[in-house]
Design a protein that fits this description.
This protein is an all-alpha fold. The chain has 35 helices and four strands. Helix 29 packs antiparallel against helix 31 (577-607).
């Protein structure tokens, strides 16, 4: 294996073609025997110019050692290289060697022994293309790193994969910096904590500026550069944002995705608020096209907001927003980039809206949580009291091969509900990972879907389906209204208010009425064994709640979603903070809808003991006579008394479709249950972590 491959460089071909495959990972550079001295830079020297006999030896090598080390003593290279030796003695390597650290790098470790070449010679160990591998002999070796105390144990690996390493080793660009270009020459390398070091915090901008001249000038005028010039250690420098050795191309997505974390090291409070915005959540989930910190604040040219040249000052703010939102207007720039719904003083609108939505969510969950628990316990008690009778009654109600069948849902309602299932699961599966972006399962789901951009497209498709089924439902109500409209006027053309109200709030209407309060109370009494089991009409009180919840949900989630989808359009008429408000409403209402549907709706309709594991009525559209008498006795009696029972009878081919739609329903339930478990887990994890 080539050393370059062992150090992690993704493309070793250029280096392999120059140096061949004799250099193995982790091995020392091959040392030439003394016979090769004539090919080195020291060809004109004699052995005795570098070696003197040890005391008591004649220097003949009579002891038979190959390199005559037994009889010769190596003298300082500083005899000829005084300047280099002086710099070395003051360097981190020299001081370590003087302190007794025998493994600290010295002349021969970097330059070789007898085979020393000129620095410009491609075979030299310190030739620019070869130098990273020479340094890597210590700065990659875990044993040496541990013994000597080298902090950057992976510096060599990181450099090889960096934009500098790739430029030098893959593309052969000798202008790309190598180790000594940044660390202060070949011999005078100092500790980073030493004020003389070229990689000391205060000196880094100038060190990088030797190659990036224009950038250094821009940085010096920035708020970061100003802090550094004042001696403030908080002033970030090049390596704080770009890192030391693992520098990647700034145009790469990986750099952008990691940038918020790096900015957050100094601006932790701002990072937390950014992460709660769409930009921050999508960024953390791998969406590279959303705005990162530097897209708004600048790169090297970050200035205080009070500076008229700042990207976020005055008129410049709109131009900054227009980089991503070309149609951004004056209202648009009023968007709170770091809006905090917990900050009552600075963001009162967001605070009170979040409090209202959270109260609504908590209230609904507490109310229906208690309701569901009481119902489950009561059903369980009846099941345990007489399991055989309970199961027998359940089987009788489910038998659709004998007795009459009655219409429960129209074909248009069944089709609409199918659209509801598809759109709701799609919206929940693509929206909840964004809300719970910090959960591992959220990141896995976005990755599985193909990234945040794909999830966003699917989410918007789900929104289109939502508006579609809502429009279909409204259109489907036009016919019944028109057929009954003549009943609401008398012979003189005056409205019959009572008949109109009966149509709107009567037993056949899905809108709530006073009867629902009576039914609710009767149901609570049954929960506690204080009354008989209620008999329902066409709609129960919880079904009417579900029906109104769809209207509320489409209005709240749909409108707020449109504001976020088309912010430039809506801010033509609304202030910029309306986008923040829309996010609060959209996020919390979506959580309420998902939690309610996957928990309470599933239980009320499918998972309660009487219905488990599924009630296929929404797919079949029909109900057995036994089930109508048992559960909707008031409806059966009302239709029978009015002579309309026969109109409700049904004959269809449900038997052929059952094998298709029941599995579809079960799959939908499974997805819903998995999502709600993931949601509850993410919420619990965040509460525990504070």
């Amino acid at each position: 294996m080539l050393l370059v491959a062992g150090l992690g460089c993704s493309n070793s071909e250029p280096y392999a073609k120059i140096y061949g495959s004799s250099i193995t990972a982790g091995a020392d550079m091959p040392l030439a025997p003394p016979s090769e001295l004539k090919n080195s830079v020291h060809a004109s020297l004699d052995c005795s110019d570098c070696h003197t006999p040890k005391k008591g030896e004649d220097g003949s090598g009579a002891k038979g050692s190959k390199d005559d080390k037994a009889g010769w003593e190596v003298v300082s290279c500083g005899v000829c290289h005084a300047k280099a030796a002086k710099d070395y003695r003051a360097s981190i390597h020299g001081t370590a060697l003087a302190a007794g650290e025998s493994e600290a790098a010295h002349c021969s470790n970097c330059h070789g022994n007898h085979n020393i070449k000129k620095v410009t010679d491609r075979d030299s160990m310190v030739f620019k293309l070869r130098l990273p591998f020479t340094c890597a002999r210590c700065h990659k070796n875990p044993e040496v790193s541990k013994h000597v105390g080298i902090k950057g144990k992976d510096a060599a690996n990181h450099y090889m994969d960096s934009i500098h390493g790739r430029g030098l080793l893959r593309d052969g660009l000798l202008v790309a910096p190598s180790c000594v270009d940044c660390h202060g020459g070949s011999h005078g390398i100092q500790k980073a904590s030493d004020p003389r070091s070229t990689v000391n915090h205060a000196n880094i901008p100038h060190t990088c500026g030797t190659c990036h001249l224009g950038v250094e000038e821009v940085y010096d005028r920035s708020i970061h550069g100003t802090l550094l010039k004042k001696g403030d250690p908080r002033g970030p420098v090049c390596t704080d944002c770009h890192s030391s050795h693992e520098i990647i191309q700034p145009t790469k997505g990986a750099f952008k995705i990691a940038s918020d974390e790096r900015c957050g090291k100094c601006h932790e409070d701002r990072l937390g608020r950014y992460r709660e915005s769409y930009h921050g959540k999508a960024m953390l989930l791998g969406q590279e096209k959303v705005a990162a910190c530097y897209d708004c604040h600048g790169h090297h040219d970050i200035l205080p907001l009070s500076d008229p040249d700042s990207r976020l000052a005055g008129a410049n703010r709109k131009a900054t927003c227009q980089q991503c939102h070309p149609k951004a207007n004056d209202n648009f720039v009023g968007y709170y980039s770091h809006g905090d719904h917990s900050d009552k003083e600075n963001y009162p609108i967001l605070y009170w809206s979040f409090l209202a939505m959270s109260s609504l969510l908590l209230g609904v969950f507490v109310f229906f949580g208690i309701h569901t628990l009481l119902w489950f316990i009561r059903s369980l008690v009846l099941l345990m009291r007489d399991p055989k009778a309970f199961r027998s009654a359940k089987q009788r109600m489910r038998r659709d091969d004998e007795g009459k069948l009655f219409i429960r849902f129209r074909p248009v309602d069944r089709f609409n509900h199918f659209l509801v299932i598809v759109s709701f699961l799609l919206l929940a599966a693509t929206g909840m990972p964004l809300k719970f972006y910090y959960a591992p399962w959220a990141q896995w789901m976005f990755s599985w879907m193909g990234g945040a951009s794909v999830a966003a497209a699917l989410h918007r498709f789900g929104a289109i389906l939502t508006f579609t089924y809502f429009a279909i439902h409204i259109a489907s109500m036009v016919g019944p209204v028109r057929r009954r409209a003549h009943e609401w006027r008398d012979k003189d053309g005056k409205f019959r208010i009572r008949l109109l109200l009966k149509f709107v709030f009567g037993p056949d209407s899905p809108l709530p009425s006073l009867q629902d309060l009576k039914d609710f109370w009767a149901h609570q009494k049954w929960f506690f064994g204080r009354g008989p089991r209620p008999s329902w009409d066409r709609w129960t009180y919880w079904e009417r709640f579900d029906y109104l919840a769809v209207f509320w949900g489409v209005a709240a989630i749909g409108l707020s979603g449109l504001v976020m989808w088309f912010p430039e359009f809506f801010t033509l008429y609304l202030p910029g903070w309306s986008i923040n408000l829309a996010l609060v409403i959209h996020s919390d209402e979506a959580l309420l809808a998902s939690g309610f549907i996957f928990t309470f709706h599933f239980f009320n309709v499918h998972f309660r003991v009487e219905k488990f594991p599924i009630d296929p009525v929404i797919f079949s559209g029909r109900i057995t006579e036994e089930e109508m008498k048992e559960e909707r006795g008031r409806l059966y009696e009302r239709l029978e008394a009015a002579g309309e029972l026969e109109k409700e009878t049904l004959t269809d081919e449900w038997g052929r479709w059952k094998k298709i739609f029941v599995p579809i329903g079960m799959l939908a339930f499974t997805i819903g249950v998995v999502l709600i478990v993931a949601i509850y887990y993410a919420m619990a994890t965040r509460m525990i972590q504070g």
